[in-house]
Amino acid sequence: MLTSAKEILTHAKEKKYGVVAPDLWDLNTGRDYVQIAEELNAPLILSFAEAHQHLISLEEAAVIGSYLASSVKTPIALHLDHGTDFEYIKKAISLGFNSVMIDASMYSFEENVRRTKEVVDYAHAHNVSVEAEIGHVGGTTETLSEQSSGESVYTTVEEAAAFIEQTKADSLAVSIGTSHGVYKNQKNPTLNFDRLHELANTIPVPLVLHGGSGTGDDNLKKCIAGGIAKVNVFTEFTTAALTGAQKAIAEGNLKSFMRVQELADIEVKKVLHHYIKLLTLKEI
Ligand SMILES: [Zn+2]
């Protein structure tokens, strides 16, 4: 059921669990994500990244996401991930996205506030939730997961508090040491949990962790315990889809592309199943 992201994340923050936010890049991944959320009776932030508009249009993502959300009982928010362009964000809202991210974290504090506030004013007038980012979650990925780039800059508590007060954003992506894409050395990153605790104790809105892929289960559990309410995952889904395709090739069943798609879907579902169980910190 299409549900407000603010409602989903406020509940998660109160009850201290995490909601997974996977990026769909086609009908199959969208369907995989929503089916697993429904099966586990878990809320989901079904996301589409502006950076993926060459793979699937905003209009297509809106139709797919709205349909999938309406076809299940579990709460689903339809979210625009890493929106950077105000006109594009307005278009997403007009097409039925009920949650948007404005990522102006690459700009100065003042410019980030200005751009975020502009989106918040518009989105709130349309009953749409807004996620913003402060500090910078760096990294790029060959798979074009999310558009951020460059070095990570940790979020400071003072700036985050002032930012939320001035922008009235509904949730805040913070930078505590994760990075987009896969980690070069394949090792889990070292995260600043002290900073996370300070942020969680000070910032009134739900906190978001970007770059969930490769962060490691122990780190993610600590992040949830430390106050993160939403975790973005993308790269591990593309890796899983590829694993499925490789399994189909290993079977020698190359006559049917359908088998490649079938096994890719199975692997994608396994990853989401794992993360939902991990982040709710209970056996579902
Ligand atoms: Zn991100």
Tell me about this structure.
Helix 2 (27-40) runs parallel beside helix 3 (58-70) and helix 2 packs across helix 10 (257-280). The protein has a single domain (5-280), classed as Aldolase class I (TIM Barrel). Strands 1-8-7-6-5-4-3-2 form an eight-stranded parallel β-sheet, sandwiched between helices. The chain has helices spanning 5-15, 27-40, 58-70, 86-95, 109-125, 157-167, 193-202, 217-225, 235-251, 257-280; strands spanning 19-22, 44-49, 76-83, 99-102, 129-134, 171-174, 207-209, 228-233. With 284 residues, the chain is α/β, with parallel strands linked by helices. Mean pLDDT is 91; it is low at 141-149. The protein has ten helices and eight strands. The site of zinc ion (ZN) has 7 residues, from loops.
Question: What's the quick description here?
Answer:
The protein is an alpha/beta fold. It has ten helices and eight strands.
Number of E strands: 8
The distinct bound ligands, ions and cofactors come out as: zinc ion
Q: What oligomerization state is this entry in?
A: single chain
Name of the CATH superfamily: Aldolase class I
Strand order of the largest sheet: 1-8-7-6-5-4-3-2
Order of helix and strand elements from N to C terminus? HEHEHEHEHEHEHEHEHH
Spatial separation of the terminal alpha carbons: 20 Å
Structural class: alpha/beta
**How is the biggest beta sheet arranged?**
8 strands, parallel
Question: What name is given to the CATH topology?
Answer: TIM Barrel
Gyration radius from CA atoms, angstroms: 18 Å
Q: Tell me the CATH architecture.
A: Alpha-Beta Barrel
Mean pLDDT: 91
Identify low-pLDDT runs: 141-149
What is the overall silhouette?
A: globular
Amount of helix: 40-55%
State the domain count: 1
Count the DSSP helices.
Answer: 10
The share of residues in extended strands comes to 5-15%
The level 1 CATH classification is Alpha Beta
